[in-house]
């Protein structure tokens, strides 16, 4: 008997034994009916074929999974039980395979979108700004000197808009923006009896400048011919905002009465304001119709604000734009400048020169010297104390230093002293839009003032060295038993330039009274407050801060 016959005989014997034991037969029918050998072979063949097909299918699926690059690297990382990524990816490892594939595809899609995203726009620079300067032909010869102080033709773009033609000398062409004569506005009604219809002409300066179709403009900045800009700080302010959106940026008047008469939501044009390019385009489309609806308004500022209201754009307030609706001496305002970049000064023909014994133009030219070295720190106030002499020291960097007898709280010193008069001369100090304090209540409280006379950069120390000379004015006799600041003649201030000052949260710098070998000279260091340094902690042997000095001597209240 052949081998195949033997196998068939063995299978047949097993079937017969199962049938005789009472089990169910393999096929339906009578139990004693023989099962064909062909059927048994067919069953075995089908079973074997199914087993081989299943094994092949599993093998192919595994190869495709491991050939996928992201999954291969992912599984290799997951098998490293001692590495940190195992814990971070534990959830992903236990996820079903089909979810993992979808997650990988989504991640790849995000990466591709990031790679295809447009690059981040460059920060705003001064050449992205166009100035529109409102000027009068009658005052041009006098006020053009203010523009020469801050405008740099090789770096900036701007247009002077006049009511009539003026003579430009060869020097004017080199130092001033080009001028244009504003278009005729006689068709617009003007019914305000106290104002002048030139307000309509001035209110259209932004629109007329836009229609000149200059390239690559992000911002239009409006100002008067007696406005002086600190352009580096202007750029710092504008960088905070998206120039592709609608922005109307400026500040209010110092006079509460002015803000009531006009609006607390209006940017005063003399202090300057900025309008983003898209907003200027929207304004140009509707401004002429808008102006027709407001013939009774007084000036250009309120007409501009009326159109902004129709466009639904509110004023974004930046306190560094200064209208200076005051008379007299700006010292109190400048020596206690708010904690924000100084952007502009206005009404310079109305107030006294900011430095004594010089002309207005010469005073502003002196102010520009420290601005070239550290524009972010100009006019910023720091307050410190000399506890051995019981003095309070206020430094307005680049402008002036004040030394007071006694200890005054920072809360009081940071208030502007009333060295100026309200725009409405019959109004008292309650008519200001901010808190003020008297210059002094007691003769002994009158500050000793030192104005900046020179400034230079010390390359070895990498610090600015500014010198402040005593402004000699009569001081009353004081019988307080403490050191007399009358002996001081000079104050030297060391300060490291800090171009990123306004990239951080707003905070005053700290100042420290240093040792000085000369009796008539005081040395002060100004800089970013150190970790843990504040005005209620001790800062060395000769100096202290408010709480420390109050323990030693009586506190002076205004």
From TrEMBL:
Q: Which domain of life is it from?
A: Eukaryota
Q: Where is the composition biased (Polar residues)?
A: 14-23
Region: Disordered, residue numbers? 1-31
Q: Which PANTHER family does the protein's record reference?
A: FRINGE-RELATED (PTHR10811)
Spell out the protein name for this chain: Fringe-related protein
Origin organism of this chain? Answer: Gossypium darwinii (Darwin's cotton)
**Lineage of this protein's species?**
Eukaryota, Viridiplantae, Streptophyta, Embryophyta, Tracheophyta
